[in-house]
Amino acid sequence: MPDRAPQPVDRQLPTDEARDLISLVRDIAQHEIAPKAAEEEAAGHFPREVFTLLSRTGLLGLPYASEHGGADQPYEVYLQVLEELAAARLTVGLGVSVHTLSSYALATYGTKEQRVEHLPAMLGGGLLGAYCLSEPSSGSDAASLRTRAVREGDDWVITGTKAWITHGGVADFYTVMARTGEEGPRGITAFLVPADAEGVSAAAPEKKMGMKGSPTAQVHFDGVRVPDSRRIGDEGQGFAIALSALDSGRLGIAACAIGVAQAALDEAVGYATGRQQFGRPIADFQGLRFMLADMATQIEAGRALYLAAARLRDAGRPFAKQAAMAKLHCTDTAMKVTVDAVQVLGGYGYTADFPAERYMREAKVLQIVEGTNQIQRMVIARHLAGPETR
């Protein structure tokens, strides 16, 4: 029904190379991702072939060093790529964000030898990663995790279960946080575990309300033996690594949220300008015009917020507070905008014949993953007022 094609986002990009990159991403999104999104999401199909294409074209390692297979792109550019991918299909945009998060520990805290050995395959060799922090009994309270790694000679033996793992069962490697020492955050260490290691298995994917094409599953580690050369960072440094990774990962979630919101706005505008009631397009009615204006304004505000945080990161300045703000605002915006998009479409918005209902279902998870929005408020408040008193 829409008779007005959505206009590409007018992006302020720092280089001609970045502009060419966005053009490439839009071409892939338009021809390889969006046409299959609705059908494959309904069928619960994971688009591994798309991730293979993204790896082959260098889009799975954008913010990492070119010497290890990355593309040396600033976060300011990488996040806008994520937004474009998520607007076409959240399963893909979020999947790239999770892969980037999963590669962060090794890329940032690994030794030179580890980076040379593993990063080229992780960033451009067709591999796909997963990030294993949460457990069935430790979500927001991640420092209480129970998965344990015990030293045996030159190896570590890992036993435990991780929960809510994006790419669980389809990933090629897992970045795993496991307890190697005392209780609390100082007893946790990070490991790079190959998915084909003996003792690694995944449960059946969770049955979710949205993002059905992206498998989320428990991952079991049953006496999994990995050499000490796959330990990332120092013993006991794992929780600090995990939190550092999440600061950057939250910006990825923020960008994905704005992508979903932008797709919902485009759908709403197209419908409102094409749908006739009382002899004229429903976009002529002030009530709907104001809704569209509010939706667009919140999207632009969210985009500006995540880009401001990204520029702080690119400049080497602290950005944890701004990352939490961006994740909070952008995901709340995505939820509000997608609900309003369904309202603009009326009864049609509630049917699977239009993508608005899928956007609404998908937006909800973005308020939960990589730290719920209640956790983001706690993070922001700690930066403002200091730690809570006991």
Largest sheet: 4 strands, mixed
Number of strands: 10
SSE class = alpha+beta
Radius of gyration equals 21 Å
Low-confidence spans: none
What fraction, in percent, of the residue positions are helical? Answer: 40-55%
Secondary-structure element sequence? Answer: HHHHHEEEEEEEEHEEHHHH
Residue share in β-strands: 5-15%
How many DSSP H or I helices? 10
Question: What spatial order of strands do you see in the largest sheet?
Answer: 1-4-5-8
Q: Termini separation (Å)?
A: 58 Å
The coarse silhouette is: globular
Mean pLDDT: 96
Could you explain the architecture of this structure?
It is a single chain. By secondary structure, this protein is α+β, with helices and mostly antiparallel strands. Helices cover 51% and strands 14% of the residues. It contains ten helices and ten strands. It has a four-stranded mixed sheet. It has a four-stranded antiparallel sheet with strand order 2-3-7-6, with no helix packed on it. Strands 9-10 form a two-stranded antiparallel sheet. Strand 9 (276-277) and strand 10 form a beta hairpin. Helix 6 (238-274) runs antiparallel to helix 9 (356-366) and helix 8 (320-345) runs antiparallel to helix 9. The longest helix has 37 residues, at 238-274. It starts with 15 loop residues before the first helix and ends in a 5-residue tail after the last helix. The mean pLDDT is 96.
